[in-house]
Amino acid sequence: MTNSNRNHLERMVVSRKQTALMLDSTKWANDFTWDEIYQLAEYVDAYQCRKGTVLLEQGQSDQKMMIILSGKVDVMKRRSETESQHLATLKAGQTLGEMSIVDKEPRSAMAYAKTGVKFLSLTKENLDQLATNHPALAYAFQCKISRMLSKRLRLASGMLVELNNLDA
Q: How far apart are CA 84 and CA 43, in angstroms?
């Protein structure tokens, strides 16, 4: 990845209804009604980028999450200046970056576009605004994030057990 790929995010100019339709097209929206999706659409921004674009940088302190609409995103953990480990490849309907909205800590991994990607982005600031204007919806949204993080933690715990069993 070159530095030229770091800043090629293009904000898509779309209506609130178009944004809601994009969100509704993902499995991520399955837990929400159309009215809730339409309300959420007011608080997210749509972006697209080219292959190789860095979406999240390890150690960065920005507080936003992304819902992938199309394309693939590779998530990598930098071990040193020259070595990284591939953690996952994410695709449409999956999210990334939600930990920063919950714990406000710097990013624990980096993510870059494996292909061209379209995604919706929700900042912590917009989530807070959603909570002010639509508290029940914000609560449901945060519960969804909590369930996703819980599933990932259970998966990681299971992997650790398997690794420990290999050492035995």
A: 33
